[in-house]
Amino acid sequence: MELDRIDMAILEHLQTHGRATTIELSEAVALSPSPSHRRVKMLEDAGIIRGYVAVLDQEKVGLPVNAFVTVKLSLHSDAALANFERAIEACPEVMEMYEMTGARDYLMRVVAPDLGAFEAFLRGVVMRITGVQSVESAMALKRIVYRTKLPLRQRGK
After folding, report:
1. Which of 31, 37, 75, 143 stands 20 to 30 A from 9 (CA)?
2. How far is CA 146 from CA 119, 143, 149, in A?
3. Whether residues 111 and 47 fall in one domain
4. Measured in Å, how far apart are the chain's first and last C-alpha atoms?
5. Signed CA dihedral, 23, 27, 32, 36: sign only
6. What's the number of domains the chain is made of?
7. CA nearest to 50, candidates 156, 154, 150, 151
8. Average pLDDT, rounded, for the chain
9. Where does the pLDDT of residue 77 fall: very low under 50, low under 70, confident under 90, or very high at 90 and above?
10. Against a cut of 0.70, is the pTM above it?
């Protein structure tokens, strides 16, 4: 799907105002409500808008620990990679996971209520997954930048 200026404006607005009504959105992008609604529906159907969420304050809900974990697997077959990925997908503590280039195979951001819970997750879950060769972790001291909004306007459109 080719995105035009109005689509980009809709996406830009919804990233900041996910609960905007059709009227509010149409005013923000200078389009009448009916075409605004149709465009949002097309963006949803195309999978560009994947869903709507509430962004929570991690500390206020009792999950202040952010840990970044790198994992190296002993085997790199498709089956070994799929097994590890499937096991991690089932872990709600893992907020993000990326397959990486370089010395490590995966990078994960893990949240926990405290260091004990994080250690229990590492020892009780990650280290028990078949094929895990080594794990390294780094604890975040303070979040400096956190965004959920993609920089759409910087794409040159």
Report:
1. 143
2. 24, 7, 9
3. no
4. 15
5. negative
6. 2
7. 150
8. 96
9. very high
10. yes
